[in-house]
Amino acid sequence: MPIESIRDVRAHLAEVVERADRDDQPTVITRRGKEVAAVVSIDVLRKYQQWEEREINRIIDERMANRSAGVPIEDVMKETLARGE
């Protein structure tokens, strides 16, 4: 998977986007040597979003089935978001 600085990506953004779209090859973008973002195809993004929604629903269903635990929905959401980091 290519890793490029923001400066390099700016110089050939169309090529980076084309690689993600046509070849399904993501590019990791760095700033001052730290990975900060990625260019991925829209299909990859949508699949991730669907997975995330399924995971949230799974956790909610799991917690709802065990009501005796009394876990607030806010805690479920915090746990879910923390898993995505």
TrEMBL record:
Family annotation (InterPro entries): Antitoxin_Phd/YefM, YefM-like_sf
TM annotation in the entry: none
Origin superkingdom: Bacteria
Function as written in the Swiss-Prot or TrEMBL entry: Antitoxin component of a type II toxin-antitoxin (TA) system.
NCBIfam families: phd_fam
Family the entry assigns: Belongs to the phD/YefM antitoxin family.
Name this polypeptide is given: Antitoxin
Species annotation: Streptomyces aurantiacus
